[in-house]
Specification:
456 residues, 3 domains, Rossmann fold, Immunoglobulin-like, alpha+beta
């Protein structure tokens, strides 16, 4: 169809309507002129869908355009109005991820547009117009490749990848979402969350990546062969014994992997695997087991049995540049977000990636991205602070813009910086250079603030 259309008009733009862009589009991307990422905060998408979809789609080499709606809920919600802060967030977040903007409406049968809707959109698009010069042809600057589990589960927003993306987003880490056909050498660290099996082809790709100096975080059943009976990634330094005999069990963090956590039992609600560390691997944290599994035969309390204080098997293992978690730590964060699970993963990242692109001193509710405008010799840091809230049964809403102040940023630039300026206000910021990094403080972020770092 695309070939036929382009034979008539080589400049015609073509997009085949889809509620989601994912790995299934890789092999047919040449039939598209661009991708349109339909993603509303309701209707089966939610606020975590867009950052995941665009972080994958932009790796395929086509222009991406975000698509939200003016509706309070979802398509066909006539005579409804999105809250202004929500529409600001959705459009400014598109810019932050290097995407173009689109806001969907739907005409009533009489064909008359609602002027109040376009007043709303106009207020946001006037701001978009002011921000555009720092967004045109901007490309992401990233450290981390996060494997999507969509290829395995088929879900639009797979919980394992969603949780990993949240952890990274909440800590200011810069990442792409990738699949089994992606090029790994673009990333300093690759994450395989919970359920990514490794066939022979992927195992070889990972081996070559590690041999070239890459680093990995792997959890639970990721890295197992297609039969699930042994690890296909030999450099993990692990032998699979089977499912963990106890659940819930407990991680006792210590040393570098336990930074910021008390050295005591932390419950891991979901059942993990029992593994044995080989000679070339170091056990970073042990699993302490309960007195018994809570069943009808052995009963204890309302939820689960406490620790018996006895070490059972390895919980976190390091082998060279790989750190492995025996539990489904990302699936667990997706379910009920234990802070210790996120802290353990971030500690592992600190060990493997001691100098990330961005270090951010801001609340975990802040979102930060780093883009490069190569021809203009500058990077653009986007800082957003909007807080989606579940104020009702069906959807998350954004009603208030809560400013944050004195946001500290440290960028690994590796070259001389000429200026650091808040744009589009053109307010210069003081900065210092230290160990290939530029450091500065943004006095105030009210919704969305861009910072232009220009190079000499």
């Amino acid at each position: 169809m695309s070939k036929f259309v382009w034979a008539m008009n080589k400049d015609c733009t073509i997009f085949y309507n889809a509620g989601h862009i994912g790995p299934r589009h890789r092999d047919v991307k040449d039939a598209f002129s661009h991708f349109e990422l339909e993603s509303l905060p309701s209707g089966g998408w939610g606020y975590m869908h867009f950052p995941m979809a665009v972080s994958y789609s932009r790796t395929l080499g086509l222009d991406c355009m975000g698509m939200t709606g003016k509706f309070h809920t979802s398509w066909g919600d006539f005579h409804s109005f999105k809250n202004l802060p929500a529409l600001q967030f959705e459009c400014f977040r598109m810019l932050a991820y290097g995407a173009k903007c689109s806001v969907g409406d739907q005409l009533a049968p009489d064909g008359k547009i609602c002027p109040h809707v376009y007043d709303l959109i106009g207020k946001v698009y006037m701001e978009v117009e002011r921000k555009e010069p720092w967004c045109v042809k901007a490309k992401p600057v990233v450290d981390i490749g996060l494997f999507t589990t969509e290829e395995v589960t088929g879900e639009r927003v797979p919980p394992q990848t969603m949780a990993a993306a949240r952890m990274l987003q909440e800590s200011g880490h810069q990442f792409d979402i990738i699949d089994t056909k992606s090029k790994l050498t673009d990333y300093k660290v690759v994450i395989l969350p919970d359920v990514v099996p490794a066939d022979k082809k992927l195992a070889k790709k990972i081996r070559d990546y590690l041999d070239a100096g890459g680093a990995m975080i792997v959890s639970y059943k990721s890295g197992l062969n297609e039969d699930g009976n042994k690890f296909a990634i030999k450099k993990l330094g692990l032998k699979l014994k089977g499912d963990a005999p106890y659940s819930p069990d407990f991680i006792v963090p210590r040393g570098e992997i336990g930074k910021g956590l008390p050295q005591t039992e932390h419950v891991m609600y979901m059942k993990g695997l029992e593994v044995k560390a080989k000679k070339n691997a170091d056990v970073l944290a042990e699993v302490v087991v309960p007195y018994f599994n809570r069943t009808h035969e052995h009963f204890c309390s309302h939820k689960h049995t406490p620790s018996a204080g006895r070490v059972g098997y390895p919980g976190i293992v390091r082998s060279g540049n790989i750190i492995y978690f025996a539990h489904p730590i990302f699936g667990q964060y997706a379910k009920n977000a234990p802070r210790w699970c996120k802290q353990l993963v971030l500690n592992a990242l600190d060990m493997l990636l001691p100098s990330p692109v961005l270090r951010l001193n801001a609340p975990t509710t802040a979102l930060a991205t780093v883009n490069e405008q190569g021809t203009k010799r500058r990077w653009i840091v986007h800082l957003l602070h909007y807080i989606p809230e579940r104020r009702c049964q069906d959807i998350d809403v954004i009603e208030d813009v809560i400013p944050i102040h004195d946001v500290g940023c440290s960028l690994r630039v590796g070259r001389d910086v000429k200026s650091v300026v808040c744009v589009p206000q053109e307010e210069a910021l003081e900065f210092t250079m230290k160990d290939s990094r530029v450091e500065f403080t943004v006095p105030k972020v009210e919704g969305h603030q861009m910072v232009c770092v220009a190079f000499a």
